[in-house]
Amino acid sequence: MKFLMSAVIWVCGTILTALHYYACLFFNIILSPFDKQKKIVHAQGFWWADAFIGINPYWNLTVTGLENIDHKKTYVIVANHQSLGDIVVAYKMRMQFKWVAKESLLKIPFIGGCLVLGKHICVTRGDFGSIKRIYREAAQWLRKGMSVLFFPEGTRSDTDEISKFQNGAFKLAIKEKKPILPISISGTREAIPKGDWIFKTKVFGKLKVLPAIDTSNLETKDFTVLRDRVYTELQKAAL
């Protein structure tokens, strides 16, 4: 039964992701002159995430803290990173943002295409020039009123402990005087079977939006204090 159910889930998930891509392509073409920030393209991820989670009886997701999002504000969004499932879960926030994503995701069928069509920011790991470029791009989006989402661990954590945060997102938030919006994600590590494709156990995932942290009175030298505060709050939220 689990074999058959898992096969159905993967087939349906692939079809949904393909539909997501073609919806993004359609709106990218017809609205290109009017939707410069690709907001309509990005919003296709909202129904995709609902459907992707809804078809999987092994997934149970709880979303809290949405009242902490002010859709009139621009944020540097900071989230811990557990798996590829974080991409699906983050769309449940129903807010506009640009991903800072690994360039390797561009190779994933349909998902890579959606990243390109949505004008998200892709980084090549280990390439210093690429890293400098993504922060320039992120700053440009923030100045246009578009939030940017970072996974400051740099890669997925293999344990329940959040890995050490990189500094860039926090320096950027202070420089651009944008509030940090911390996002706690849990349960997604087990959501996609590692080294297997068969879903075996019920997974209870959580997405929690924490209160935003103001940076308007901070100086660049304060980035470590800001970084450590966000890290601590996300650690507490995961308990």
Keywords:
7 strands; single chain; 7 helices; 239 residues; seven-stranded mixed β-sheet
Q: What's the SSE pattern?
A: HHEEHEHEHEHEEH
Please state how the strands of the largest beta sheet are arranged side by side. Answer: 1-7-6-2-5-3-4
For the residues shown, what is the average pLDDT? 90
CATH T-level fold name:
Glycerol-3-phosphate (1)-acyltransferase
Proper CATH architecture: 3-Layer(aba) Sandwich
Strand content: 5-15%
Helix content: 40-55%
What is the end-to-end distance? 33 Å
Question: Helix/strand-derived class?
Answer: alpha/beta
Structurally, how many domains make up the residues?
Answer: 1
| CATH superfamily grouping | Glycerol-3-phosphate (1)-acyltransferase
Ranges where pLDDT stays below 50 over 5 or more residues in a row are: none
- Annotation, overall tally of beta strands: 7
Describe this structure as you would to a colleague.
The chain is of the alpha/beta class. Helices cover 41% and strands 15% of the residues. The protein has one domain (2-237): Glycerol-3-phosphate (1)-acyltransferase (3-Layer(aba) Sandwich), CATH 3.40.1130. Helix 1 (2-30) packs parallel to helix 4. The model has no long low-confidence stretch (mean pLDDT 90).
